[in-house]
Amino acid sequence: MNKRRGLRFLGGLAVLLLLLLGLDRLFPLPPVPPYSPVVLAADGSVLHAYLAPDQKWRLPAELSDITPALREALIAKEDRWFRWHPGINPVALLKAAGRNALGRGRRTGASTITMQVARLLEPKERTVGGKLQEMLRALQLEAHYSKDDILRLYLNLVPYGSNIEGVKSAALLYYGQPPHYLSLAQTVTLTIVPNNPTGLAPGRHNAALQAARNKWLRRLGEQGVFAQKDVANALQEPLLAQRRAAPQLAPHLSRRLVQEALRGTGSFHESGTTTLSRSTTPAFDAGIRSTLVRSTQAKAEDLTRHYVRRLAPLGITQAAVLVVDNRTRTVQAYVGSADFHDLRHQGQVDGIRAIRSPGSTLKPFLYALAMDRGLVTPKRVLPDVPTSFGGFRPENFDKRCQGEVTLERALCYSLNLPAVHVLQQLGVGEFTGQLGRAGFRTVARQAPQLGLSTILGGCGATLEELTNLYATLANQGRYEPLQWTASGQPGPAKSDASGGAAQRERSGSASLLTAGSPSLRERGQGGEARGTGSATQLLSESSAYLVTDILSQLVRPDLPVGYENSLRLPRVAWKTGTSYGRRDAWSIGYNRHYTIGVWVGNFGGQGAPALTGTDVATPLLFDLFNALSYNDGGEWYAPPAGLDFRLVCPVTGQVPGEHCPDQVMDYFLPGVSDVRRCEHQQEVFVAADGAVSYCRSCLPAAGYRRVLFPNFAPEVLAFKAANGLPHALRPPHNPACALVRAADAAPDQAPRILSPTPNAEYVLDARDSQQLQLRCAAWSDVRQVYWYANDQFVRAAAPTEAVFIRPTAGPLKISCADDHGRNTNVQVLVEQL
């Protein structure tokens, strides 16, 4: 009999369990309302918060974010038996029912914290039926969640008046502090407001709220929840709560990260708030933890905003700043514009992702690559003369040429012509390929269309890409993707930038045309995936060090003013850049700790006369370095083991030859750098009176002497001649030499220009494709000639090759030099119909 009863009991229990499971399936718990999208700093503090889809401020908080004092006060005030009851408190229910039935005391519903959570998840009218459903939901909640989970739900959903829900939201919006920073008085205040969110709203009813706070402080002290001494101190604290704006630091990166997390399920308004679909919104229950350092971000935003205000009279309205920690490759500050809310000047455009012309900022990377290919060393002398590269005629920024300069001088003064010469040696394809490996997405996509103007800014790049390129130099040539979020957090997805940049080569400089308009366009959603790539050795440690050493020698703009503090100022290697038309000013610098990139300009693409990297972007760069890296100990780079010294000729920077008495020290890469000996001077046999020179075929038995003559490159020789610079010319070759062809011989043995005819007039039809032919007769030992039009280099050609040009109307000077340095000119007049 007892066995049968036991079976019946177990069967009944099983049926009851099945029934409960069925009801649980039929009436599932209501979903937790979506939290506000929140972007956190590296330390977990809130950088930026957005409204939840239902337009509520509902910031997620973990129990670890809530102080034990707040939890104890809340439980003591709302539900002392919370840890022990199953969701409902039968004793409290009976007391409340008796009190309500007898009409004695304050009417109460005896709601537990679990029952309040049920009501917050599924609001209902205050009726007996609603209370019963609330109790059932409370039991259901206890079956599904732990006590800590239920308490966390309550802390995140409890109302605080207006559209504020949750303890964390209330702490930030009423006190401007996270919950764990609150005092005891502020903590107890937050436990009181939910009982009457309208009548005790902070900032509107502070007197009534303070009275209620003090009442509960005394009561909690009497109950032994808090020490009497702490309560006495809390009673003296004034109540200063008021409604504050939500945290809004790093708005551009915050929007970028939240958009990626939403994956296209929401859209952002100009105000920075968001409208999201309830069915597709991620929970955001932990927030997105970025790598930004709160103090660094705040300082960068303040410096940028105040600096741009000073530039307003110059017609310059925007700036962007990126700060990278070199040791971790994490972004510590991200300032997309001077003021996100400045709609007049397109403040919501993200200047860090905007595709712009990089100006001269790519030159350090070019020279480092050329060093790794053995083409140059710091003391290598490069031509700085007017040159036409297949129709592309670059000019230096100041429109001047120096003839010949060392690489380190060319880089320090950001000369354009030497850089184009080096790029021609290295190869455009090699250069753009390495930029693609360095994360330059627009350059990688447009590489087949790019030419020599790339090194002068004739391509598209972003501040994000350029700053990481300099961080690569700062990290001994190792490239790694930048990291925006903490490990395991979502980051920007990999995608191509929207739009593009078309190359344009023209006389005078290079310009960037972006999809038919010079205006800045914001990169579309995306960017490279962060934190997943491994390091890539783009440059050798030696070339990275040499470029760093050169860039650190530039005179800082702030030292003449603050020279007495120079011992504490951070040492910085830095480079500037200015795009064609003065639309973009760049200044990027680095030391052992930070790489900082600065862009200054107008988001509409308008240029300004004062907009140059040196004058406009660099002061902000050093303001940032002085604020972030002041008195950092002066740690600097040491020469790597793979670098060595050697003596070179100061005239060419090459290994000294037999005619190089003067020598200087230069760095070089053993086994890589060019070891050809210098030939800047050539030994020539001349007559005793210096009237003619001899080759070995016509060298007389006596009556001659050996003389050294400079062996200039033809374009350098032509530059010196055109500008009246002193230079020694070798005497004409012996006219009686048997190797001279009578038909082609000239008194000075220079090439004879056969076309165009000297002093002739040429009429070209502008509607046709007519061109002017250049043809010469050169001496028998000439292997190559060099053509110039109005002292601008046209091209090199074989002596018998015809060259064609299409000149502009007006006087035209045609020059031809052979590979022996001999030169001749003709003048013609060109007219167009």
From TrEMBL:
Organism: Hymenobacter gummosus
Penicillin-binding protein transpeptidase domain boundaries: 320-528
Gene (name only): pbpC
Compositionally biased residues, Polar residues: 508-517
Domain Glycosyl transferase family residue range list: 47-219
NCBIfam families registered for this protein in UniProt: PBP_1c
Pathway terms, separated by semicolons: Cell wall biogenesis; peptidoglycan biosynthesis
Gene Ontology cellular-component terms listed: outer membrane-bounded periplasmic space
Listed GO biological process terms: peptidoglycan biosynthetic process; proteolysis
Organism lineage string: Bacteria, Pseudomonadati, Bacteroidota, Cytophagia, Cytophagales
Domain of life: Bacteria
Known EC number: 2.4.99.28
Record flagged with keyword Protease: yes
GO MF terms held by the record: carboxypeptidase activity; penicillin binding; peptidoglycan glycosyltransferase activity
Protein name: peptidoglycan glycosyltransferase
PANTHER family membership: BINDING PROTEIN TRANSPEPTIDASE, PUTATIVE-RELATED, PENICILLIN-BINDING PROTEIN 1C
Catalytic activity as recorded in UniProt: [GlcNAc-(1->4)-Mur2Ac(oyl-L-Ala-gamma-D-Glu-L-Lys-D-Ala-D-Ala)](n)-di-trans,octa-cis-undecaprenyl diphosphate + beta-D-GlcNAc-(1->4)-Mur2Ac(oyl-L-Ala-gamma-D-Glu-L-Lys-D-Ala-D-Ala)-di-trans,octa-cis-undecaprenyl diphosphate = [GlcNAc-(1->4)-Mur2Ac(oyl-L-Ala-gamma-D-Glu-L-Lys-D-Ala-D-Ala)](n+1)-di-trans,octa-cis-undecaprenyl diphosphate + di-trans,octa-cis-undecaprenyl diphosphate + H(+)
Family: In the C-terminal section; belongs to the transpeptidase family.
UniProt entry keywords in alphabetical sequence: Carboxypeptidase, Glycosyltransferase, Hydrolase, Multifunctional enzyme, Protease, Transferase
Entries under InterPro entries matching the protein: Beta-lactam/transpept-like (IPR012338), Glyco_trans_51 (IPR001264), Glycosyltr_51/Transpeptidase (IPR050396), Lysozyme-like_dom_sf (IPR023346), PBP_1c (IPR011815), PBP_C (IPR009647), PBP_transglycosylase (IPR036950), PCN-bd_Tpept (IPR001460)
Keyword Hydrolase: yes
Penicillin-binding C-terminal domain mapped to chain residues: 744-828
Region (Disordered): 483-536
